[in-house]
Design a protein that fits this description.
Strand order of the largest sheet: 1-8-3-6
CATH architecture: Sandwich
Helix content: 10-25%
Structural class: alpha+beta
Oligomer: single chain
CATH superfamily: q2cbj1_9rhob like domain
Strand content: 25-35%
Distance between the termini: 21 Å
CATH class: Mainly Beta
Number of strands: 8
Length: 137
């Protein structure tokens, strides 16, 4: 869990995915959540996203040669705004392509993330090992 606060004028956050670069991963191994403490609109700094793009980052037995989407593809996505009222909770899969438009009003939210204990991608496996080592110290 962590808190986030953007103060105006903020340029926003570039178009990206929280998937790991050049990596296809097992499906639905991570989940992200945000509780918005302020109203969010297209004019004030909305989260934007491209529906369904998380699936492009997942392993698919029907498509064993699948490659992760390029940065160019992510930039070119058809982004839509998630306009939310204060108190709204937004759940998303981290791999979905998303961005934040320029922020013109205070934008506060609390985020949390979850990862399964089972099969994960090689990059996530290494990140988990590093956290375990850090916690032992």
């Amino acid at each position: 869990m962590k808190t986030n606060r953007y103060t105006p004028e903020h340029p926003g956050v570039r178009k990206h995915t929280d998937g790991f670069p050049d990596e296809i991963s097992p499906p639905f191994t991570r989940q992200a959540m945000a509780v918005f403490l302020d109203d969010i609109s297209s004019d004030s700094g909305a989260l934007t996203y491209v529906p369904g793009t998380h699936k492009l980052h997942y392993q698919d037995p029907a498509e064993p040669a699948r490659r992760a989407p390029s940065k160019t593809a992510i930039e070119a996505g058809d982004y839509i705004a998630a306009e939310l009222k204060a108190g709204s909770v937004l759940f998303r899969v981290p791999e979905v392509w998303h961005a934040v438009v320029p922020i013109h009003r205070l934008r506060r939210y609390v985020t949390g993330s979850y990862a399964v204990r089972g099969r994960v991608s090689p990059v996530m496996s290494e990140k988990i090992k590093a956290v375990k080592c850090w916690r032992k110290e």
